């Protein structure tokens, strides 16, 4: 009995003691500032693990690495370090458009090569790039006789968070893809989650777990392992989750790290782990704002299908073109313009023709009319998930758009998760895939590459997740991939005030989002928006996208001319971005500098609790005065009831030495334009 209890105690001790206390590091690399260190170790069974320390304290405990293969034994044990090579890099690169113009890229890199000690001597490298604000690591498989085709059933990458933490996450493998409100739970209560997943440890350290450069691979989700660690769960595919031939590399597994929530937003780690621009000059893409029939469709005032309510008519589109020209908007998006929307298009995307307009829509004439007004049509390709059908038409469709001067296209993949329709040969069987599986990873890249040949930018909705590939393919400009404004039209519930200050620190860490803000009517389909008027303006600064929609109907903007002025003034391309304050799900304030002037803009918003925030204006340029054009909640504003519309616009002169007090109503916000005065 005593012996049994002793054995049990030893087993408990072994399972609860970090492996770092029992295994010596075989390789290590530190960040340029020395605060972060990653170590690899291989235990007595040849199992590979990594761990991460910050300021000498454990941040990630020993976490396993490896694979389960469909066409071979596990790549998990019997491994040994074979070689290691280190290098450092410090440079900067310019974004053609973005949250900031210049991005610093400074990291230390370790390439550690591991080989099986017996039998086939299969091998792979783990490449680590460690920055001051986090790290990324990836597996790289060299060409080798024992591994030709690699069929990956599961990637065994783990993230064993060393401290108790709070997590913000949305579920994976649910029917509505990424379009869920975020859970806030203890880390121990996380189910199977999509990435990015954001964590705040009990000592205040903020982390975001995600991936970068998702190419020809299945998207990674995270599930809870039996030891409480998060473990990779690759999106399903057939015959395996991933099928590749060596040589190849996986996407980067990323850990962004900061002392405050805003550090995660200011990080460029995801972009820096992607390859440089492969398209060359993309100055033909112009960051801008646009209008269109989209909100009217969600209100059911107009329809996608033809008939008496059809939104995509020649006359209606001319009305929007005239409105855009009058108020300085570059783009007009019209959905429902092409053949195939009549009937149950949700169930049958095979009826769509992406080359032919409906009889009541003069595509050629409208493109010419828009051009005469200094406006561009924005194309629309909804696939209803008939993806192979779309691929057979897309090059011809892009070519036609290019001839008409249509240089941006919104694509769509409306169907339940796991219902992407794939047909490898005409008249062959139709197979079902997931939105973030390997098949769709390759599909989205084919679309972006095909569009680039015609100098067209792509904005996918119901997309694959953003992993920073906009650096490599700068015509991949934005995407949806979260619960957007349309849920305020018909969602039950509509988006609550905590949603957007959560998105900033979760989904938006992956990249830009086409959130479609600016609904100044504050009214959905039979339900009010949970927002004040000023909050709708703040969204243009807080939620980044290089194309921003003024989503409301033209007649509603005519009713709110003071608020509409900010929407007309605010740019969509930035020279610099700073997060002034913020807590996940509570509040956030963001300042951005216009890339094409000396003006700065500020957006701030809160959850259901009103608050007062004092913001130093030290981000403004020294030695210059600014006219602060302030758009704020009225004294009695509230996101519930008629007080949503309580709103004030005022001006004052400020400098970088001043402090600005932001009074945010419950569910409210504030937007400010700092117009630079001449010296």
Can you describe this structure?
- The chain is α+β, with helices and mostly antiparallel strands and 679 residues long.
- The protein is built from 13 helices and 36 strands.
- The strands form 7 sheets. Strands 6, 7, 8, 9, 12, 13, 14, 15, 19 and 20 form a 10-stranded antiparallel sheet that branches. A 7-stranded antiparallel sheet has the order 1-2-3-4-11-17-16, with no helix packed on it. It has a 6-stranded parallel sheet with strand order 27-24-23-22-21-28, with helices on one face.
- The longest helix is centred in the middle third of the chain and has 17 residues, at 387-403.
- It is globular, with a radius of gyration of 26 Å.
- It starts with a helix and ends with a strand.
- 51% of the residues are buried.
- Mean pLDDT is 95; it is low at 1-22.
Query: What's the pLDDT, averaged over the residues?
Result: 95
What is the number of helices?
Answer: 13
Q: Report the uncertain regions.
A: 1-22
- Main β-sheet description: 10 strands, antiparallel
Spatial shape = globular
- What class, by secondary structure content? alpha+beta
- The percent of residues in helical segments reads 10-25%
Beta-strand residue percentage: 25-35%
Please report the total strand number as a whole number: 36
Gyration radius (Cα, Å) is 26 Å
How far from one another are the termini?
87 Å
By oligomeric state, this entry counts as single chain
């Amino acid at each position: 009995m005593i012996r049994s209890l002793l054995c049990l105690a030893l087993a408990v001790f072994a399972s609860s003691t970090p492996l770092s206390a029992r295994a010596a590091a075989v390789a290590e690399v530190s960040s340029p500032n020395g605060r972060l260190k990653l170590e690899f170790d291989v235990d007595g069974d040849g199992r590979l693990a990594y761990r991460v320390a910050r300021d000498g304290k454990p941040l990630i405990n020993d976490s396993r690495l490896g694979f389960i293969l469909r066409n071979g034994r596990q790549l998990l044990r019997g491994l040994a370090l074979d070689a290691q090579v280190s290098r450092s890099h410090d440079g900067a690169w310019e974004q053609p458009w973005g949250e900031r113009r210049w991005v610093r890229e400074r990291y230390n890199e370790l390439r550690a090569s591991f080989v099986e000690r017996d039998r086939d001597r299969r091998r792979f490298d783990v490449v680590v790039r460690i920055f001051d604000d986090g790290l990324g690591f990836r597996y790289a498989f060299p060409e080798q006789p024992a591994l030709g085709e690699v069929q990956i059933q599961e990637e065994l990458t783990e993230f064993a968070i060393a401290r108790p933490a709070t997590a913000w996450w949305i579920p994976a493998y649910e029917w509505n893809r990424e379009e869920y409100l975020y859970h806030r739970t203890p880390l121990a209560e996380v189910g199977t989650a999509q990435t990015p997943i954001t964590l705040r440890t009990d000592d205040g350290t903020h982390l975001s777990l995600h991936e970068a450069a998702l190419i020809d691979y299945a998207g990674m989700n995270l599930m809870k392992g039996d030891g409480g660690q998060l473990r990779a769960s690759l999106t399903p595919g057939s015959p395996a989750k991933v099928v590749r031939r060596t040589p190849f590399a996986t996407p980067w597994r990323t850990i962004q790290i900061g002392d405050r929530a805003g550090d995660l937003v200011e990080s460029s780690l995801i972009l820096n782990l992607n390859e440089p621009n492969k398209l060359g000059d993309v100055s033909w893409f112009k960051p801008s704002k646009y209008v269109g029939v989209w909100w009217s469709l969600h209100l059911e005032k107009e329809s996608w299908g033809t008939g008496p309510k059809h939104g995509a008519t020649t006359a209606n589109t001319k009305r929007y073109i005239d409105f855009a020209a009058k108020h300085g908007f570059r783009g007009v998006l019209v959905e429902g313009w092409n053949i195939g929307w009549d009937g149950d298009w949700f169930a049958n995307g095979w009826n769509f023709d992406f080359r032919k307009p409906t009889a009541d829509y003069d595509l050629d004439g409208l493109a010419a009319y828009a051009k005469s007004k200094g406006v561009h049509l924005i194309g629309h390709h909804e696939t209803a998930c008939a993806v192979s059908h779309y691929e057979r038409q897309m090059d011809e469709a892009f070519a036609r758009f290019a001839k008409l001067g249509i240089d941006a296209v919104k694509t769509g993949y409306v169907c339940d998760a796991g219902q992407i329709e794939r047909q490898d040969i005409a008249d062959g069987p139709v197979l079902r895939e997931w939105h973030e599986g390997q098949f769709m990873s390759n599909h989205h890249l084919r679309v972006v590459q095909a569009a680039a040949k015609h100098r067209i930018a792509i904005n996918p909705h119901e997309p694959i997740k953003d992993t920073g590939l906009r650096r490599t393919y700068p015509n991949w400009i934005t995407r949806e991939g979260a619960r957007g404004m349309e849920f305020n039209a018909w969602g039950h519930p509509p988006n609550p005030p905590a949603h957007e200050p959560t998105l900033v620190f979760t989904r938006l860490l992956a990249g830009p989002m086409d959130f479609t803000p600016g609904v100044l009517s504050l009214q959905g389909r039979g339900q009010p928006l949970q927002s004040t008027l000023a909050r709708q303006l703040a969204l243009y600064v807080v939620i980044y996208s290089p194309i921003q929609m003024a989503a409301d109907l033209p007649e509603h903007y005519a009713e709110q001319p003071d608020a509409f002025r900010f929407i007309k003034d605010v740019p969509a391309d930035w020279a610099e971005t700073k997060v002034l304050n913020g807590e996940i799900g509570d509040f956030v304030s963001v300042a951005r500098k216009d890339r094409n002037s000396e003006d700065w803009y500020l957006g701030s918003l809160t959850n259901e609790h009103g608050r007062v925030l004092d913001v130093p204006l030290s981000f403004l340029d020294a030695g210059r005065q600014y006219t602060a054009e302030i758009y704020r909640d009225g004294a009695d504003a509230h996101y519930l009831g008629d007080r949503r519309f309580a709103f004030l616009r005022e001006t004052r002169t400020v400098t970088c030495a001043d402090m600005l007090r932001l009074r945010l109503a419950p569910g409210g916000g504030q937007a400010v334009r700092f117009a630079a005065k001449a010296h």
